[in-house]
Amino acid sequence: MPAITPTSPTPSLEMLTAQLTALRPRMDAVSLAIHACPELKFAEFHAQALLSGWLAEAGFSLLLPAGGLSTAFVATHTGSRPGPCVAVLAEYDALPGIGHGCGHNLIGAGAAAAAIAVARALPDHPGTVLLVGTPGEEMGGAGKVRLAAAGVFDDVDAAVMFHPGDHSLTGRPGLAAAHLRVAFTGLSAHAAVSPWRGRSALAGVQVFLTALDALRQFIPPTARVHGVVSDGGQAPNVVPAHAAVDLYVRDRTAVSARELVGRVRQAAAGAALATGTEVDVSETGPLYEERRNNTVLAERFATAVRALGVEIAPGDPDSPAGSSDIGNLSQLMPVIHPYIQVAETGTPGHSDAMREAAATPFAHDRTQVAAAGLARVVADLLTEPELLTAAREEFTGARQDPRQEPRRELSGAAQHGR
Ligand SMILES: [Zn+2]
Ligand SMILES: [Zn+2]
């Protein structure tokens, strides 16, 4: 590692970049090792070990596991005097059947590199740098929601992360999403000898899906209601006693998504009534809230990224990303979730093509740029009190950005992450 001594209260971008260049071989090795061994939500032990081991070697103290999740961890670098607490977020879970088709190997390794770069470039920084390992983002795992509920973010002033993609954006809206299982229970019978003795749970599913399609014209155009039949019965010659649909109900706000869940419940109840079955509608995980991007911090990230030669623009407010548990965190504190292009424009997320892209040298070049952007924001938050003040003003609504929805009042439950 080159000997670099900070000469100003906040390190220059060149100093942060020099640290990241020194960290690059390890960053690539950690990222590729995670990529080669994809782990599903809450089973990411290999990734957790790789990332936390690197941070411990770099002088961070470890809390592992953390927040009641066995694959979460918190790595802490405590400064020489009091100051803000800034968290860099590392995701590292993969998708069933596709592996790292969302590129979380890059998120995890890039986040760790960013946190270590700040600690090295600013060894006697004020405040605290945290690297929070947040497992289970995919498949409704809601890792961040669970960690927030366990108090992991109680003392955090701001949280930053980046996400790989097919273009570079300072932020984009994310939909609120409820994750439902609609399970019908009927009565089994021989499907040919005495079907009238049975009540088909699969018929309940069919009527329910038809009712959902009948609803579609009358729900907001911003809403998305989609699912799969996760249980369609067991055998053709048995009237199915059990059948189920796994469903996501999304819209621009948690309030609107909740309202739609009420209508979906009515459709399910109607289907059960029509088919002589019973239905149970349950939430398979916490609701993902809509995302608020802190534009003050996102602009600071963008300035660094542009200085390193990557063009980045604000996202289209009418073109939302999917949904993520970062949304819930963004309701609790100033958060950024920018995107960095690592794949050819048009490469779909959650695809085989994105998985291949997430292992290329180009993706790692871009991840280094993103890590520099995150390191820039973290270092500035620690050393420039006005930046945190401005970010907080936007968050509380004292400073209104035209691209942001006004902050809605949070219930006590929401404040604790739900
Ligand atoms: Zn992702
Ligand atoms: Zn994803």
What do you see in this structure?
With 418 residues, this protein is α/β, with parallel strands linked by helices. It has two domains: 13-174 and 290-415, Aminopeptidase; 176-283, 2-Layer Sandwich (Alpha-Beta Plaits), CATH 3.30.70. The chain is built from twelve helices and twelve strands. The strands form three sheets. Strands 1-2-4-3-5-11 form a six-stranded mixed β-sheet. The chain has a four-stranded antiparallel β-sheet with strand order 8-9-7-10. Strand 3 (81-90), helix 3 (104-121) and strand 4 (126-133) form a beta-alpha-beta unit. The longest helix has 24 residues, at 13-36. The site of one zinc ion has 4 residues, from loops.
List its salient traits:
Aminopeptidase; six-stranded mixed sheet; alpha/beta; elongated; binds zinc ion; 39% helix; 418 residues; single chain; 2 domains; Alpha-Beta Plaits
List the total number of helices: 12
Number of domains: 2
Largest sheet: 6 strands, mixed
Shape: elongated
Strand adjacency order, main sheet? 1-2-4-3-5-11
TL;DR of this structure?
α3 links the parallel β3 and β4 (126-133). The longest helix has 24 residues, at 13-36.
